[in-house]
Amino acid sequence: MVNVNTVYKTVLYILNKEQRGYITPDEFNTLGTQVQREIFEAYFEELNQQLRVPQNDSEYANRVSNLQEKIDIFNTSALCTGANPFTLPSDVHRIGSISYEGSSLVNTIAIQKVGRAEYTLLESSPLTKPSISYPVYIGETTGAPSAAPSQIQVYPTDIQSRVRCNYLKAPVDPRWGYSLGS
Q: pTM of this prediction?
């Protein structure tokens, strides 16, 4: 979880640097959201950098595991809603894995992500054609092109329910609570 105190101190640092003085709670909420998103995205860049550096096996000083702990707070799982195409939860920031829960919970099958061009190639051969045992999905974005997918199309289309998404949820925006006229 991104510490609200870290967000607050970063906002104050930016404002002091610009010599803006005091800010309203509404300005804080706007700036706080932006700062929190930048801190959250920096976790992924830091993790990418640390994976390239030789690590130690120390329990508390392992940088990769420390960053992974910060990111894991946002890791969650939920069933996708609707029928094929499935709607992903609204708070998806990054998709981890998609799986299909077969007739029993013991029978969970991973669904592989493919692109549209790759799906066309897979579909053209009887050996690689998606099946219930080896399903694939294509992510579809209905919002901004850079946003996380909001829907997935699963192939074969026989899969109509029990699709689970493991994902990183977006952090909740910080809100400095206040009421007008107090």
A: 0.71
Question: Are 21 and 62 members of one domain?
Answer: yes
Residue 181 lies in a domain: no
Domain closes at, from 21, 37, 71:
71
The set of residues, in sequence order, having a beta carbon less than 8 Å from that of 9 and lying 6+ positions away, is none
Report the alpha-carbon distance of residue 180 to residue 182 in Å, rounded. Answer: 6
* Pick from 5-14, 64-73, 110-119: least confident: 5-14
